[in-house]
């Protein structure tokens, strides 16, 4: 490997580590619904934020109609690096722009034993992840209010 190639490889690895550190939440999940510039994601595995992340989350694209706009294909699983976009009663998450959010099996990165999928590198470095454990505030929204009478 040339010095230039070695340097580029290590810069990408450093960028990946910084991206992981910046994100409040790192998780995989499948896009189950698209409404305008929001996506509903069924969360599978979580590496950061499992105690607060619910099994179903809403992502908000604050970059809609800009060069950084996201596109997530319904039914496809993705790896998300996200932060809280709106922290009201009903939380929205925002994929971090210029970060490593991608469809699964779409981004290869350097590892000590060659190029591997990004999500495989996360498993190697941080373990298999865990299921989300947070409460879903959106479930309360759709449930009838016990104080309401018909």
Explained architecture:
By secondary structure, this protein is of the alpha+beta class. The protein starts with a helix and ends in an 8-residue tail after the last helix. The longest helix is centred in the first third of the chain and has 20 residues, at 3-22. It is built from three helices and eight strands. The protein has one domain: Beta Barrel (OB fold (Dihydrolipoamide Acetyltransferase, E2P)).
Q: Which secondary structure elements does this structure contain, and how are they paired or packed?
A:
Layout: H1 3-22, E1 25-35, E2 38-48, E3 56-60, E4 77-86, E5 92-95, E6 102-103, E7 108-111, E8 114-117, H2 118-126, H3 137-142
Antiparallel strand pairs: 1-2, 1-4, 2-3, 4-5, 4-6, 7-8
Distance between the termini: 73 Å
Domain module count: 1
Oligomer: single chain
Shape, per Cα inertia axes? globular
Strand content: 25-35%
The SSE order reads: HEEEEEEEEHH
Under the CATH scheme, the architecture is Beta Barrel
User: Which runs of at least 5 residues are low in confidence (pLDDT < 50)?
Assistant: 143-150
Q: Structural class given helices, strands, pairing? A: alpha+beta
The value of Rg in angstroms is: 17 Å
Q: How many helical elements?
A: 3
Whole-number average pLDDT? 78
CATH topology: OB fold (Dihydrolipoamide Acetyltransferase, E2P)
Helix content: 10-25%
What top-tier CATH class fits best? Mainly Beta
Biggest β-sheet description = 6 strands, antiparallel
User: What is the strand tally?
Assistant: 8
């Amino acid at each position: 490997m040339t010095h230039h190639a070695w340097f580029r490889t290590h810069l990408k690895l450093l960028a990946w580590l910084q991206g992981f550190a910046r994100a409040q939440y790192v998780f995989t999940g499948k896009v189950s619904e698209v409404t305008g510039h929001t996506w509903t994601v069924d969360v599978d595995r979580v590496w950061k934020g499992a105690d607060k992340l619910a099994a179903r989350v809403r992502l908000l694209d604050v970059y809609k109609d800009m060069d950084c706009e996201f596109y997530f294909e319904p039914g496809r699983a993705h790896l998300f690096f996200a932060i809280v976009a709106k922290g009201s009663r009903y939380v929205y998450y925002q994929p971090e722009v210029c970060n490593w959010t991608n469809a699964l099996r779409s981004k290869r990165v350097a590892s000590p034993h060659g190029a591997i999928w990004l999500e495989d590198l996360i498993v190697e470095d941080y373990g298999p992840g865990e299921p989300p454990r947070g409460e879903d505030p959106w479930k309360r929204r759709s449930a009838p209010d016990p104080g309401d009478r018909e």
